[in-house]
Amino acid sequence: MKPRFSHLKIDRTDSSNTDFQQLVVHLDQDLRIRDGEDHAFFAQFNKIDQIKHVLVAYVDDVAVGCGAIKHYGDSIVEIKRMFVLPEYRKQGIASSILFQLEQWAYELGYKKCILETGKKQPEAIALYQNCHYQMIPNFGQYIGVENSVCFEKSLDD
After folding, report:
1. 1 in a domain, yes or no?
2. Does 3 reside within a domain?
C-alpha cells in the first residue's frame, strides 16, 4: 500500500534501536489500559530484547510507528510489536509497516506470517483483515486464551 505521507520513511533495524524502544513504551502503556487484568499474561510474550528484524517508521524524522518479525517455525514468521502513535493513525502508516515486514520476511525465505492480537484492539483486527490476513485458531501460548485473536497470511500469494 502506498503511504499517504510523501515524507514517510521506514528503516530496517533491530531491537537495540532507541526509537523502537520508545515506541514500545507507548505501545505497552496503551496495552496496559486495554488489557487490564490480562496485561501481565500478554506482556510476558512481548519482550523486545534480541529481536533482529525491526522496522521504525518516521514522518519528518519523528518516529511514529514500528513493527517486528520474529522466527516462529521452519517457514513461519510472527509479526510482533505493531504500533503507530495515535495522532498518526488512519493515514496508511500501519499498513505500510505491515507490507514491508511481509516483504522482509519473504526476502528471508519465510512462506507465512502469523500474529496474535487482542479482541480489545479492534483497530488492529481491522488492519489485519484489510491486509488479507485470515483468522486462524489460536496458536502456541495463545491456545485457550479468550481475549486473543490469531491470524495468518501466506507470502506466496
Report:
1. no
2. no
Contact status, residue 125 vs residue 115, Cβ threshold 8 Å: no
86 domain-assigned: yes
Q: How far apart are CA 18 and CA 15, in angstroms?
A: 8
Report if residue 60 sits inside a domain: yes
Per-residue model confidence as pLDDT tens for the chain (157 residues): 444 556 899 999 999 999 999 999 888 887 766 555 654 554 444 555 678 999 999 999 999 999 999 999 989 999 999 999 999 999 999 999 999 999 999 999 999 999 999 888 899 999 999 999 999 999 998 899 888 999 999 998 6
Domain that holds residue 77: 8-154
End-to-end CA distance of the chain: 15
Would you list the DSSP string of 11-38? EEE-TT-HHHHHHHHHHHHHHHHHHGGG
* Torsion 155-96-24-143 (CA) sign: negative
Contact status, residue 20 vs residue 54, Cβ threshold 8 Å: yes
Q: What is the pTM of this model?
A: 0.86
When divided into structural domains, the chain yields a total of: 1
- Residue 18 sits in a domain whose CATH number is 3.40.630.30
